[in-house]
Amino acid sequence: MLTDLPNRWVGPINELVKDLGYNGMVLVADEGDPISDFGKLVFKNTRHVVDRIIDHMKITAKIHVAVIVDSAQSFQACAVELDDDEFCILIWMAALIRTSASLSRLLATPAAREFFALEPELASVSEVAHGENTFAAYDSLSLLPRIDLGDVGNDFRRYLEFMASEWLVLHEIGHIVQGHLAVGKTVNGLTYILEQDPSVDRDYNITSQALEVDADCFANLFCVQYSLGRHHILERDGASHDEVVVGRLKPYLFSMLSVLRSFDHSPLNLETLFDSDHPPGCVRMSYLLAQMLTMQSETTIDFKGANLVEAGGLAAITLERAISEATGVNSQGGNLLSAVSIPDEVFRKPVLSRWAKIYPELNAIKLSPFKLARPQYEPA
Ligand SMILES: [Zn+2]
């Protein structure tokens, strides 16, 4: 199966995709070729994640899944409101193909092998990504062919890929169940929230960034819990409770950070922070790592005695080193470090006071029985 989107919606969704400037369409026909096979896998995995959370939260709304094939290989995902209590998640197939390619290349680096205690033999990497800086080089890494890491390495890569896609899908689900589409954009009667959707309206961007932070935190909360409950191929017998916790968090941290890192195309610039409707990837990375510390301090999740600061920091440093090693471009690791030191007045206060302002509206229409995050600032 490639999609469960009812036939009547395929045309309007294809039009929406075109209107948004993408050369893509809903994958519906099984041609028996590798694209169709991969599309079926993406659909199955996405459906699994959606069904699990629907069941978990007892959501009654219909949420369909459609895979988009896009000739430009754009990395994109979208939440769409189709009708009352009927929604759709669009996942660009290229997002998953590119994630798979970059994860294979990152895992082949000495930095990642050391971090995960993977076998030291390196796959032979003939091509190295290039670009004028670390952001362009990381972007081009995802367009190279995926490399073979051997049985264990490939298995582990698939595990990281699943977690990256789980995070992406849960982020989209977050937009739907937390009521964000009430303040989404509408084209031809369809309301949507697109990832990477530049706008020049600073006020709109602050609202949108508040929604992005909320969707990120929603995804992070569930992904952390799911990751902690999963055994993976590199887990060894006889590990202590703390080691198991850290060992299960590391693959999630690495895959989640590797996706967010790919959203940055230039060094962090606080002057242009609200020129986009999405916070810079590094700001989102920093926010989610901080959210995990809050989960620990508020004991929302039992992390045993795991040192989350060390695990998160090490994952971020490893990712940065792996990008340098895989691309040959030295990153200097700057963006996340800059994001961690942004004063509250510059990002948190404007974004979270906007959250407080839209909170009553979202709270009234959210689909989820769970409480929304309580406002921490005066509405503005
Ligand atoms: Zn989003």
Give a description of the structure:
The protein is of the alpha+beta class and 380 residues long. The protein has one domain. The model has no long low-confidence stretch (mean pLDDT 93). 54% of the residues lie in helices and 9% in strands. Strand 3 and strand 4 form a beta hairpin. The protein is globular, with a radius of gyration of 20 Å. Strands 1-2-4-3-6-5 form a 6-stranded mixed β-sheet, sandwiched between helices. Bound molecules: zinc ion. Zinc ion binds next to helix 6 and helix 7.
What is shown here, in short?
This protein has 380 residues and is α+β, with helices and mostly antiparallel strands.
What percentage of amino acids are in beta strands?
5-15%
- Can you tell me the residue ranges where pLDDT is under 50 for at least 5 consecutive residues? none
Please tell me what the overall shape is.
Answer: globular
Total discrete domains: 1
Largest sheet: 6 strands, mixed
H/E topology pattern: HEHEEEHHHHEEHHHHHH
Number of alpha- plus pi-helical segments = 12
Whole-number average pLDDT? Answer: 93
Instruction: Calculate Rg over CA atoms.
Output: 20 Å
Biggest sheet strand order reads: 1-2-4-3-6-5
Q: For the terminal residues, how far apart are their CA atoms?
A: 46 Å
Oligomer: single chain
Which structural class is indicated by helix and strand composition?
alpha+beta
